[in-house]
Amino acid sequence: MIIIHPLLGPRDAQEFTYLGDASLIHRPDPEADNVAGTFYEYLYQRDNIAGEHRELWFHEQGDRSWLVIKRNTLTHDILSVELASDVARREGRSK
Amino acid sequence: MQYSAFQIFKQTLRGHVGWKPTWRSPDPKPQYDYIIVGGGGHGLATAYYLAKKYHGVNIAVFEKGWLGGGNVGRNTTIIRSNYLLDANEPFYEYSMKLWEGLEQELNYNAMISQRGIINLFHTDPQRDAFVRRGNAMRLHGADAVLLSQEALRKKCPFLNFDNARFPVLGGLWQPRGGTARHDAVAWGYARGADQHGVDIIQNCEVTGFLIRDGVCTGVETTRGQIRAKKIGVAVAGSSSRVMAKAGMRLPIESHVLQAFVSEGLKPIIPGVITFGAGHFYVSQSNKGGLVFGGDIDGYNTYAQRGNLPVVEDVCEGGVALMPMIGRARLLRMWGGCVDMSMDGSPIIDKTHIEGLYFNGGWCYGGFKATPASGVAFAHLLATDAPHDTAKAYRFDRFSRGFLIDEKGVGAQPNLH
Predict the structure, then answer these.
(1) Domains of chain A and any CATH numbers
(2) Is A48–B398 a contact, with Cβ atoms under 8 angstroms apart?
(3) Could you tell me the mean pLDDT of each successive run of 10 residues in chain B, 416 residues long?
């Protein structure tokens, strides 16, 4: 797979490590009620979608940026690539 | 029809016109006592043990494609019970014992070959860990032998013992481990289940579950609604997709594991050998091909095919361990889509929906578990209580903090 990095252009997927579902950006509030339940959902439960999947990749052997990639898990087609920091800010995370 | 040498002789005299289909292809009935979703190894084994032990029950197995077209036909055929933890070892040793009697039980040649499995170690701490594992295995009634480097040199003189980075210091040997013919396991269970009256419905996809007020009363299929008292799902690889139809999320990611076969070679590899420093394992098939594999690709996928970086990694591991195979040509490679659970261990449990039961999360160790998984899932379906050997394989172990962390590295979906 070739990942079109937003800053660096086309890079081999081999340079990256994979974390998983992009919803992992949103860590639950550790001060909230039912924290055991929300962290259980966060840590263990996954949608595991067959089709378009938003996921986190880390450019470990490159500029060490985190990316949010939309990829089809049935065909391996990469549909969009964004910096995870941009996505996180857009979705309301402060940093 | 009972298979035997006499039967072959008799059919030979008749010009082989008397053989019957190995299983029927019936139309689905509108109602069953039990429905098993998934006609792979685990689903067919479940149906077989359920039908054999609980006579007079109506059972159907629904399979989207053809029997044995999923992971039971895509694995590297290794059977073993070399686990460490109390939650795992009794289950896998029970499975090993069932393997040993399987061909007689099913009257079907599954080509079970107990030629041994050797896990190599390359450092002193790794040897200590394997001593501990071997002792744990023996405490649970399995067999384990620690091989010194000298003993290993006699068995496998071709290994790269003096590798500067990862010298081979010895191995943990399970002589009863080995390989089986994976397709024949599926066919043998299918034939056995069919003989006990199980309806095996191929090319019929389960597209939904009939759930009302928290009770599952049947399934929607491409051939209409079928009702049942209890429904067991055994579709590892596609578990999240199928259980999503019942509104469930699972502690599972689907990943691809690739496997490889070389051209046929003269007998050279005695049993199964696993590399302790890289990720590579190899055995030799009865036809002579080297059957080997390594790590998962590492990203979510349902594509049943992998990418080249892992091919390169596996082949590098193989050549580092046994340089002689650098000259063997790769004949075929393929991928299987596996359920990677969050602690590397499976789930055989009831769901929160009454009448709906789940078997999955086998990571890439499902094949060796096939017989015990069938017995345990059949037991759970029939009695609503977990089988003695599968008590730890519960859904709630993640929320309660009782993970079965065989590898000892914490919760992540890339273990096995």
Answers:
(1) 2-90 (3.30.2270.10)
(2) no
(3) 93 94 95 97 97 90 94 95 96 98 96 97 97 97 97 96 95 98 97 96 97 96 97 96 96 96 95 94 95 94 93 95 94 95 95 97 94 98 96 95 84 66
